[in-house]
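Design request, tokens follow.
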């Protein structure tokens, strides 16, 4: 799983958000990793559909914003 890029640190970021528990876990991962509030994390997760995509999108958008 690590070599496939599905794990970040000690957390599985490439998971199916199929129930409330997993969605809450994904939101908490985003909060811990990106240091954003719960509302932002929840919105980002809903927009992107997965923790991995949300992390990549936030970091990409944050880099673009900082460069401009």
């Amino acid at each position: 799983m690590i070599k496939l890029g599905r794990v970040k640190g000690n957390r599985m970021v490439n998971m199916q958000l199929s129930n409330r528990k997993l969605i809450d876990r994904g939101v908490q991962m985003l909060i811990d990793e990106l240091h954003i509030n719960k509302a932002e994390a929840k919105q980002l997760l809903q927009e992107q559909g997965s923790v991995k995509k949300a992390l990549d999108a936030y970091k990409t958008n944050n880099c673009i914003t900082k460069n401009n």
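Comment from the thread starter after seeing the answer: thanks! The radius of gyration is 12 Å.
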